[in-house]
Amino acid sequence: MGKGEESSMTEKIESIESGTPLPRPKDRSVGHLKRFWWIYFVIFVLLALIIVLPIIYVGYPHKAQKDVNNSELEITALSLTSPTSNSVVLQQVSTLHSNSSYNPQLDAFNASLFLQGTEPNIKPFAFVNIPSVHSTGATPVDFKQSLQLVDVDQFTDFAKLALSSEDFVFGINGRTGLHQSGLPKTTVTYNEFPKMKGLNGLKGFNITTFKISLTPNPDGSNLVGIVYVPNTSVMTLDLGNVTLRLSITGTPIGTALIPDLTLKPGNNTLDMRATTNTSVVLSKLGAFPSGLVPVDIVGSDCIYNGQHLTYYEEALKANPQQIGLNLTAAIASAGK
């Protein structure tokens, strides 16, 4: 018989002789737990931390960033007004769409506005302060502020893109704090490319009515008319006094002025006054027996409060127009 068996037998004999029953296995487990409960508690806490901390500090930030990435900003109105040579006043009406099951609070933050083609080393043309947002399924994001154009060349490219395109995108980038009830603040990167309707090259531009005078008006003009300018975008643009250069088959025939031009979404009907060289126009009419003359029109100057808006000037130059005008009939009527 081994020592262990002898000891067990001795305990049983002593128990029988003393009349004290041996502790059952269950009683021994309870006693063990009572004695060493703190060890099991520490183990439980450590296991809980091992599971929960990665969720809070790894899984939650990852989920937050993913939800931000999947959100979409819909711009329903955008105005660029009160321009100077290096600034504009931006007013934006937009909605932030999100399918997230959470409704976090995003802190206000400073964001870069840039063209998509400049990634990954973006070249901001301006910085905008995005207001704090409590994200729901569809959250309004509206603001108005003055923008300093930190890169006029980049903003010129933005103006060209908006004017020439049927649809276009631009970038909004920044970092901000995200708060979700019951969880610590995390930082996310907002990098969004809202898609907008452009001005589609001003297709449909036309001079709907005009009248030629053989005797110049007091301001020197000898042609007055109505210009139709369609704006298929949701943008309102203050362009100032816009000067257009007119030519026929490459030969300049004069200039036209559209004063105080604010281009609004939809159809714009505007007054125009032009100063033309009638003798040059007459010399060209013979090449067009029908009387319908193709007139090329190119924007040259945009002046607002005495300042040239070079970014709009370059955009208009990049989008020349050509329309047919019955100059023969107009000149004939002027002589009556």
What is the structural class? Answer: alpha+beta
Strand content: 35-45%
Q: Helix and strand string, N-terminal first?
A: HHEEEEEEEHEEEEEEEEEHEEHEH
Largest pleated sheet: 11 strands, mixed
Write the layout of secondary structure elements.
Blueprint: H1 3-18, H2 25-70, E1 72-84, E2 87-97, E3 105-106, E4 109-114, E5 126-130, E6 133-134, E7 138-148, H3 152-164, E8 167-169, E9 171-179, E10 186-192, E11 195-197, E12 206-212, E13 223-231, E14 235-248, E15 251-263, E16 266-276, H4 278-285, E17 292-304, E18 307-308, H5 310-317, E19 321-326, H6 327-334
Parallel strand pairs: 1-14
Antiparallel strand pairs: 1-2, 2-7, 3-6, 3-9, 4-5, 4-9, 8-11, 9-10, 12-13, 13-16, 14-15, 14-17, 15-16, 17-18, 17-19
Helix pairs in contact: 3-5
